[in-house]
Amino acid sequence: MVNLRAGRPRRAGIRFAMANLHALREPLTVLVLGGTGEGYDLAAALADQPGIRTISSLAGRTSAPRLPPGEVRIGGFGGAEGLAAYLVARAIGAVIDATHPFAATIGRNAAAACAAAGVPLLRLERPAWRPAAGDDWIEVEEWDAAVAFIASQARRVLLAVGRRELSPFAGIDAVWFLVRSVDMPDPMPPFRQLEILLARGPFTVAGERDLLRAKRIDTIVCKNSGGDATAAKLAAARELGIRVVMKRRPPRPDLPAVASVAAALAWLRSLTER
Ligand code: NAP
User: Fold this and answer.
1) I need a surface site. Which of 76, 186, 228, 271 has the fewest CB within 10 A?
2) Does residue 33 have its Cβ closer than 6 Å to ligand 1?
């Protein structure tokens, strides 16, 4: 439950946004919750839109984030209450949650904060990957199941799960891990057999094929992030007959959702034209 502090505008949300646009002749301020390629592309597209001011919000997890055009703020809001207070303080007229499919907490917080502040909220999310003919996927809900599978079935694993989700795998001593991460894990969990590869996508199928062969990988462990930047490993795994242990996406609030920047722009237009 979110309680707003005193001082909340009496006309919140879309009515407040329309007042901005049509009566006060001030721009509509859009908060983009980002940290993804979609968030970046959306902020870049909004930079060209007359009558819209964009604030992109990043969690501040990576050391050198790609900064989108427009205003950027970095760091948490302090839960749903903090986000609701921010929406009011900055007179936000619309929020687009373009965070990563596995960033479930900020998704819940955005839904609660926007409901409390009366601000329209849209989810921009890339479609999930789906197995194609020739794929050998083991889909799991939680890492426990992946750990159990690897411990009994794998020898050499490409672990591409993000540097903050390595711990569950560190106790599997009999398996050799290639950990691929954008930034160095800190602290590094105590793996017995480990090589670290610092790399940021996009990756190519040819590059992934070479890597999987050179490191004699028999199993890839990853999350169903979707999108093109990191999909090449799946195509290479299909070609080479390598298994993929794929973590399914966590549930998110039931919200209006789109899968493209163009559709998000259309949603914003529909708000301002209504
Ligand atoms: P999370 O578990 O959903 O969020 C944890 C907390 O981080 C939130 O409660 C919030 O702190 C803060 N936060 C998250 N996203 C934020 C944003 N865009 N702006 C401001 N604060 C934010 O998220 P996560 O999985 O740690 O991911 C953090 C960020 O990295 C996300 O923005 C996401 O788009 C990006 N990312 C995540 C993954 C992944 O696999 N999880 C992969 C690539 C990129 P407060 O409660 O203090 O507001």
Assistant:
1) 186
2) yes
pLDDT tens-digit series, residues 49-67: 999 999 999 999 888 889 9
Nearest Cα residue to atom 37 of ligand 1: 100
Residue 166: CA count within 13 A, CB half-sphere = 26
Amino acid, res. 189: P
The pairs formed by 171-180 with CB atoms below 8 angstroms and a separation of 24 or more are 171/147, 172/147, 175/150, 175/151, 178/215, 178/217
Query: CA 129, CA 65: separation in Å to the nearest integer?
Result: 25
Q: Is 102 in the pocket of ligand 1 (CB under 6 A)?
A: yes
pTM: 0.88
Q: Tens digits of per-residue pLDDT, 144-199?
A: 999 999 999 999 999 999 999 999 999 999 999 999 999 999 999 999 999 999 99
Going by the DSSP 8-state scheme, the letter that residue 201 receives in this structure is S
